[in-house]
Amino acid sequence: MEVVRTSSVSPIHIPTSTIKKGFTKPKFWNVQFHPMPGSSFSRIHKKTSQKSKLFTTISSSPSSVSTGTHEPELEADSQAEKFDWYAQWYPVMLVCDLDKRVPHGKKVMGLDIVVWWDRNESTWKVFDDACPHRLAPLSEGRIDQWGRLQCVYHGWCFNGSGDCKFIPQAPTDGPPIHTSKKACVAVYPSTVHHDMVWFWPNSDPQYKDIITKKQPPSIPELDDPSFIKLTGCRDIPYGYEVLIENLMDPAHVPYAHYGIMKTRPTKVKTDREGGSSVELSVTKLGMDGFVGNQNQFGANKFFAPCTSYAYSSPVVDQGDDIASSAGTEKASIYLIRDERKIMDIGPAKWQKACFVPTKADAFVVGFRRWLNKYSGGQVDWRGKYSGALPPTPPREQLLDR
């Protein structure tokens, strides 16, 4: 099975609603995404119109960089420190979507994993999704009456540490073969953060306590009760790189999502959709991601590899509500076609296939610069993905929400 090329989420730019003769409520848009089906997103806004702080701290000390039309070169930098895709925290599933009575299977970074509730330790666990006996998927198993994860194929049972506690086929008066290290299941470090289960894709014992040294990206508003949070999950049939570009591209919203997402009226309406100049810039870029500025809307942070965080400052109300009407959404059709064209020319030569002359493309250019500089222009699949794209789903399926 190929590594899944499906990701999910709604676009990152969420225009604010207006308050008559006052200020707009600050909006925060947080997206966790990863190269696997089912990524999560959270939209939160302040319960009151009180001005909120803007958070601009990033986890490293990146150098200053400006991305714009005067810097088109995006070739891979062989001298830069390389980004380790398997030394990061990845969101797996929203807690609200998990059933404690059954195990749940996922594929992340080409790894088959199983998420299950260990009631003996009252926490979510993430294991390798293969029973050591005959490699049957543990995600198809069950939680037995003692709270152990049981393989559906031959009934082997495992505790929260991955130790095999019971082999039905073993003689009761024979040697305790279940205690062999070969009978254990690989356990990945995991944690619950911002109401999501996260995991560290390396089961080496040296990372057992990695949470004490490095934590998942933190967004204060998501845990602040003075904000309203809306969380959801959405599957979209295209890959990681194209998904991030989509999230970081507010200029496409009036067109690709016409009538679906609300947009702020422009002073001069040049067409039906009301598209306008978008002033974006990247101020800091380093191996951990980048900080961007959206002059009209606020700011943006990309926490590599899988969290995008946008937030807006209060602005004076112009006196009109934001326009909206019925319409259709065809973004998936465009992006799947774009993905294939970029794949044909090669990810590291992205700039040769695309003409990005305006400041509206600064975040997309910034992301491609980060990807090329620190990861050779592509995700490190460690041989788990050949690079071939799956067949494009029929148009009717792509448009079916």
Number of strands: 19
Q: Domains counted in the coordinates: how many?
A: 2
Strand content: 15-25%
Helix/strand order, N-terminal first: EEEEEEEEEEEEEEEHHEEEEHHHH
* Mean of residue pLDDT values: 78
Provide a count of the helices.
6
| Separation of the first and last Cα atoms | 25 Å
Layout of helices and strands:
Blueprint: E1 27-32, E2 39-46, E3 63-64, E4 90-94, E5 104-108, E6 111-118, E7 123-128, E8 142-143, E9 149-150, E10 157-158, E11 164-166, E12 187-188, E13 190-193, E14 196-199, E15 227-234, H1 240-247, H2 253-256, E16 280-286, E17 289-294, E18 298-303, E19 307-311, H3 331-345, H4 350-353, H5 362-375, H6 395-399
Antiparallel strand pairs: 1-2, 1-19, 2-15, 3-16, 4-14, 5-6, 6-7, 7-12, 8-9, 9-10, 10-11, 13-14, 16-17, 17-18, 18-19
Main features:
single chain, 401 residues, alpha+beta, Rieske Iron-sulfur Protein, 8-stranded antiparallel β-sheet, 4-stranded antiparallel β-sheet, 6 helices, elongated, disordered N terminus
